[in-house]
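To whoever is on call:

I kicked off a structure prediction for a single chain this morning and the downstream step that reads the tokens threw a length-mismatch warning. I double-checked the sequence; it's 558 residues and nothing unusual in it as far as I can see. Pasting both halves so you can look.
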Amino acid sequence: MTFLESILDRLGRARNDVVVREVRDGAFVNATGSEMLEMVAQARAFLATRGLKKGDRVALLAPNSIRWAALDLALIAEGLIVVPLYARQAPGELAGMIQDSTPSLLCCSEGSLAEAVRNTGRAIPPVALFDKIFAGAEPSASVAPALRHADHDVVTIIYTSGTSGEPKGVVLNAGNVTFMVAATNARLNQLMAGRREPDQVFQYAPFCFAAAWITLLTSLSRNSVLSLSTDLTKLADEMKLASPNYFVNVPMLLERVRGKVEEGLRKRGGWAAAVFVRAQRAYLAKHKGAGGSLADSLSLWLAKLVIFPAIRKSVGPSLKALICGSAPLAIETQIFYQMLGIPVLQVYGLTETTAICTMDEPGNVEPGCVGKAVPGVEMIVADTGEVLVRGPNVFPGYWQRPTETAKALEGGWFHTGDQGEVDARGNWRITGRLKNLIILNSGHNIAPEPIENALAVRLPEAQQVVLVGNQRSFLAALLTTAGANGSTNELAEEKVRPVLDTINAGLPHYKQVRAFCVVPEPFTPENGLLTTMGKLKRDAIAARYAREIEQLYQRKSA
């Protein structure tokens, strides 16, 4: 059974059950299995009037919604190739993706989205708005059965974030997606351990990203209720209302939640703050196999009894686990949630591997690792330290980029561009990106991510940390502030220097960070310094702050 057949079958069996809902103004807007099938049929009836044929591309530009999910299924059922686009991306970048994928139709939730792309001066295909696609007319009873896909049939082209250079269209076929949906279902079955009630799942990441899309398809194929966030400014309230058993996260959110919990306890002060600090110290010592003081051990016992349950309730009273991917998660943060009794299951993968290569097994989590390779997926480390992958999850190629496809799939393995290592039990650890390596003029190669993570954890006042130093004699750091109005007072010399000294003390001389400066604005997708998935655009950052970087090295050498 293909992934689409599995979803349509489940929707048919859940005709009277809520399967997906939107959180709007503190309440739910629900769709049952029957209503989803009706919407899919409605969209298919509309598409049938457009003269489209199998293999045509259709771009989908809209924020997450029930109608997004229904239209996605309808497009796939018609044999069309979905090109999902990020509604908050810069119009110029969207125009470039549309020009590259040459869709026959652009489906938008609002006319303003299409207008913004049109105003770039680039040609766009005919536009169909959701209100017209789901206009309310009864779908024709003669709508043909959904296309039965062969494994090689292309179902989507997902554009990568593009940390350097232009985004590339990653082609995924039905075989890739069917394999991955089965793999994620198997792991979630382990997590939920035979639960009969529907899984409660929360989703805030946009469906145009591979991991979020696989979450959508997996949720629709299993006994679950998927709650969709519609307002990121109300994320905490929406999450509380949805009360999920699990949801997919990026590290940034988990880091912020951890920071708020710790800051709240610090401000509260008193016995609770003192007990928490001692308990955290005792838990870390226990994790490292070291002994702790009796007072710390007693504090840990008390915190488990009184403080941790209260924090768990505030984070998510029904949580079985948090699932995290897309970027490295600081090991201290994973241990923090583990201490609270909320396991963080890490996944590792890229769009080119249908979002996932490895997944942590519930009950068998090693903090700092990203789990074992998904059964059926092979992973090895090349002589260069690069992680190579092959299996049914690996994409067939980039859209209209044969040279880059051949390079990425050289030797029958997908070259991830990531550095990694695997232990004797098969647990993988991702240590950095090959292209992010900083090469000092001494010849030393340094992966910046571990040092950046260490600085970020110990400097909660810093919103972002990025190391520089290519072809220089030492490392330096650029910091952005999380303080109000971009104030640099939060990151004054007397605050940062002791942290640098502590971290440097445990590093070899060539990995020590000798200088830093605080830049006046955070890195964001809007100013071109972050990808839409929150990854640093290092080349763009280095170019934007070239003068400040040069001054750092001049001052230090003076």
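Update from on-call: the warning came from a stale cache, not from the record. Cleared it. Sanity check on the structure: DSSP finds 18 helices and 25 strands in the chain.
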